[in-house]
Specification:
The protein is an alpha+beta fold. 21% of the residues lie in helices and 44% in strands. The chain has one domain. The protein has three helices and ten strands; from the N terminus they run αββαβββββαβββ. The strands form three sheets. It has a four-stranded mixed sheet, with no helix packed on it.
Length: 178
């Protein structure tokens, strides 16, 4: 009988604890936020260009005939310029450089910018920076790289975060709470 009473009391105590936690979770903790935020999260591995040239006589002088390259190519990692403006006010301007010792890692950037709630014009530019000395085919490849721009009116809700990201097609997208 004692065991049954002990079991019933522990069940009631557990139930009371669950109710107390559930009620405590519903208590308001401070004022709801009056502002919203814009998060910019970009990641891309597209910023590379291959620059090739015919090897000079000095470069192939000591090499046997079967080891002489037809072209000498070097891959160059590009820097990108990122600019974010909210209602025409520039909120972020940064040059992004690929990481790593040989600059072979993808470009990655993540920042959250506070913004007043309401209807806002958000403009984002993500443009490659032309490295010095590009000529010929390399300059043509650089000219074909996408210049990504986004300019939209968006409703930013108080306490919510809108997200700007590069989608799977390589385009800038702005996602908001629905």
């Amino acid at each position: 009988m004692r065991t049954l009473l002990r079991l019933a009391l522990s069940g009631v105590a557990t139930l009371l604890l669950f109710v107390a936690v559930a009620l405590g979770a519903r208590l308001p903790l401070g004022e709801p936020p009056a502002e919203s935020a814009l998060r910019v999260a970009l990641r891309t591995a597209q910023g590379r260009i291959e620059v090739c040239h015919e090897p000079t006589a000095a470069e192939v002088a000591g090499l046997p005939a079967h080891m002489r390259p037809l072209a000498s190519c070097e891959e160059t990692a590009l820097e990108y310029r990122l600019r974010v403006a909210i209602d025409g006010e520039e909120r972020l301007a940064r040059t992004l450089t690929p990481a790593g010792w040989r600059r072979t890692r993808p470009l990655a950037f993540d920042a959250t910018l506070p913004a007043p709630a309401g209807s806002r014009r958000v403009a984002v530019e993500f443009l490659p920076i032309e490295p010095p000395g590009l000529v010929g085919e390399a300059a043509e490849r650089f000219a074909q790289l996408p210049r990504l721009e986004l300019d939209r009116i968006v409703e930013l809700e108080a306490g919510r975060i809108a997200l700007v990201l590069l989608d799977e097609r390589g385009e800038l997208r702005l996602l908001t709470a629905r």
